[in-house]
From TrEMBL, chains A, B, C, D:
Catalytic activity: 5-hydroxyisourate + H2O = 5-hydroxy-2-oxo-4-ureido-2,5-dihydro-1H-imidazole-5-carboxylate + H(+); 5-hydroxy-2-oxo-4-ureido-2,5-dihydro-1H-imidazole-5-carboxylate + H(+) = (S)-allantoin + CO2
Keyword Lyase: yes
Domain of life: Bacteria
Limits of the Transthyretin/hydroxyisourate hydrolase domain: 179-292
Gene transcribed to yield this protein: uraD
PROSITE patterns in the cross-refs: TRANSTHYRETIN_1 (PS00768)
Protein name: 2-oxo-4-hydroxy-4-carboxy-5-ureidoimidazoline decarboxylase
UniProt keyword Membrane, yes or no: no
Species for this entry: Bradyrhizobium quebecense
NCBIfam families for the chain: hdxy_isourate, UHCUDC
Pathway: Purine metabolism; urate degradation; (S)-allantoin from urate: step 3/3
Lineage: Bacteria, Pseudomonadati, Pseudomonadota, Alphaproteobacteria, Hyphomicrobiales
């Protein structure tokens, strides 16, 4: 990681080297914006890079699009991806696909490339496997002009996240979301401390996976947001709260087995950069939740 | 099915024949109570049969216990169970066990029989596979006197349900429970009609299964209780409500995908003869539930 | 009270005498429908009377309108109202007006009569004092044709309620509403028994008054609906639940004074013939309500 | 207001002058602690003053108690209170008593003084009129030793609040509470902005009064806590939320009049230094609240 100040003061070559892969295999973007230094903030720097791409001749934009690898393509993975692409694809679990999932992605890539002549590109850090497949279904019927435009937008989203990871500045790009929870024990009228919480990403195809586990603290919150410092991938989740153990520990009279034991809250994320708060109000016999903020 | 009046008026032989298998392979119970006719109600008849068993010499009670088959025993099933036992075991899904479940029940039967010298008996219509295994775990540490007593109690529960299916009378035995739901749409302030509801029995071991599917009517209720006219088997369930489709049909603005789509309410049943009401209060952005009655 | 059968079989004179004041001081309505007997139900009888009024020459309809007394007019009350009018006006508390309320009604009557030349008529059993004044404000700007029509509709509502009180039949006129409540203690997971409930009619002008008091029974309900067997007067109400005493009696640990003691639920009734259910879900630290049905 | 640093560096006389009335008419407390300077924080300074009082000879403590005025005593108010006492008594509304309230306080003062020989002292900033009268009822049966002890505790609470208003330091005395609210519109799934909120102190005797009015902001909160920077006086409150106007402005279909218009949440405060959060989750047809933190 480097600072914006250092980048402003760096030699042209060092500047370009630092930002060479913000746009995949396309150091020309960094080259074009090097001369416009200094930048007052990372937002200004990013806007300059985005403008360079958007105003580039369409052949160059098409070349940029074609620089991107297919999603979850085993041959390409074996041949080597850029470190960035590799980490990004893994973030959505594209390195751990089941056979059925692998086939589904293969079909996506092939159908898309057959129609448009370039790879299907999506900012995978903003997605789960399921939402990628939904996004693909939505985009495949488009015409090529729309898809060139959409591809550039997705590439800019990828670039913003890469830039955010490279450059430290006083300002921030609005590329991070947050998912948080809170458990209020309305039986005792106090925040519920010590409740085990599990966040699970539900998969339509293939298998669900645990995203994170946490314990509620004295405030009924988790010390860290369930997801923070990154986009909250679009998709469907289940939060599981172990309330049976909690009330048993407190000595509250329960039925056997307890009426409520592990409470699942199932919800979908549609705005990866939003702040989503999903609280639980609970007694041994009732509960409520709502989309908070 | 017959009526209590007919039974009161029947010949001794017909009376015994009708009730011969209320207690498994033990027509002597019916024989003993035939002479005490007429019975004012089915409850009185059942109490007489129960008293006959409880006051029988302990050898006879032990013989009665030993008349019962093992649970989910393939050899015995092949050799033939009474129709009653066959239907009862199937009601809890003991005819559709996975390999792991079959092994678990085999261990239960063997461990129990090895310790006590008689089969493990439980009124399976009041249980799910999981709750049978839990019941077994709880009972195995008991001494033989307690287990003889418990076995007789379970046999009487089985008998009450069999009697209820054979005899029609003005009064009823309290052997049935009820599980019901209700969906209130607090977005429109009205009962939610046309919501697809699915009741799933969750299995710890092996696979979950759909118990029933229903649509809510104009009152936000299902036309029939989800479970009724029989005990509600002890166990853990999930109710799934398709609220995403419902609000979409009503034209309510939703996120894409909807924040709430299929809402699971997970709860356990501990009183098979109780009336359990599990309602849902719901908007596209919030919901609540509670144990009602 | 009489039965429809008796009315069908009565002499013409007896029939007319029984229904002479269903329409205020206007036996001609009963006279007109006497010849069409027998009636299959009370609904059919009422429809016939309504049709007679609606199809009467407009002079006759105007005369019918003018037969009605002013609301809460002291002079007319002193001179004597029909028994029906007297009871109806008292039901809305028009016999217990404060000075300010009396003045308000006086202004209503005068303004209305000055504009239209006939008294302001409303079916007071469907109203509270406040909703009468609101209804008046809404109707005063109308033209005379609309108000003649509205007056006849209100007269027919009055008539339906009078007929319902006179005639017993197999069918019922849909003139009654219901207001009910239910308290569920989500701290113990059981219906809350023994909670004192008070229903108060809130008055904008003048003073609020207690409509009824009740105790919840073992089901968490009141033995009788809070309002039933009559319209639920349009207006604003407060339900007061003494939950502090309830939880104290149960030995639940509370703050001193209790966080929640007397919980008010404030709501308005807009459909006097509807079934309105206003439940309370409560712990010592939280509560919820909703419009149920 | 002065800073702790200045007080640490001030002459003995200036120090005593600044803190002379922290304990009513009793500069000797400040005199005793002047020599122990410097103080690392306001908490340390306060502990020293408190210790000086608690360790003083009992005649001196009694004299300190007797230095305090009666509550709401017209004669003493006319003769002149210290500025502090004057402002404190007014904070609880003791300057705006109805005749009945004035009489009630008179009886309190007389009964207490008759029994103990010194005035009834309570830290009025932590109380409402009603809770003062409740506190008195609780304390009157005590014996004199308990009441001397209780009086000193109350005097120290008064002193802590006075000190907090005089001295600025890096640390803070834990003398302030907070009352806040939040409105979440679960009809739209968003914080409810622009809802008029009114906080009313309910009085058993005499009249209720509006404590504050506010509008919810874009977060559904009020810009300032409803009560903050001071104790939340023990007592019973009603929060009134104008939700009818809010939903009407948003164009949500409502009944006429709206089912919910001005929603009252009634609750009691028992810990004046606590942080009490009373949120509202609301649709046009339902609402919920709970004690949050």
């Amino acid at each position: 990681m480097t600072t914006l100040i250092d980048l402003n003061n760096a030699s042209r070559d060092d500047f370009v080297a630092a930002l060479a892969n913000v746009f995949e295999h396309s150091p020309w973007v960094a080259e074009q914006v090097a001369m416009k230094r200094p930048y007052a903030g990372i937002a200004q720097l990013f806007m300059a890079m985005k403008a360079a791409v958007e105003q580039a001749p369409s052949e160059l934009r098409l070349a940029l699009i074609k620089m991107h690898p297919d999603l979850a393509d085993k041959t390409q993975r074996a041949a080597g991806l850029t470190d960035d692409s590799f980490a990004e694809q893994n973030s959505a679990g594209l390195d751990r696909l089941s056979g059925a999932e692998y086939d589904a992605f293969q079909r996506v890539n092939d159908a898309y490339r057959a129609k448009f002549g370039f790879p299907y590109i999506v900012c995978v850090r903003r997605h789960t496997k399921d939402s990628i497949l939904r996004d693909f279904e939505r985009r495949l019927p488009n015409d090529i002009a729309v898809e060139m435009q959409t591809s550039v937008e997705e590439i800019c989203r990828i670039a913003a996240l890469r830039l955010d990871q490279i450059v430290m500045a006083d300002d921030r790009l609005a590329v991070h979301g947050r998912l948080s929870t809170h458990v209020l024990d309305t039986h005792s009228g106090k925040p519920a401390a010590g409740i085990a919480v599990e966040l699970i990403e539900l998969a339509g195809l293939g298998t669900s996976r645990v995203v994170t586990r946490a314990l509620t603290n004295a405030d009924g919150r988790t010390d860290q947001p369930l997801i923070g410092g990154r986009p909250v991938p679009a998709g469907t989740y289940e939060l599981l709260f172990s309330v049976g153990d909690y009330f048993a520990r407190r000595g509250v009279p329960l039925s056997d087995p307890p009426f409520l034991d592990r409470i699942p809250l199932r919800f979908s994320v549609s705005e990866p950069e939003g702040h989503l708060h999903v609280p639980l109000l609970v007694t041994p016999w009732s509960y409520a939740t709502y989309r908070g903020s």
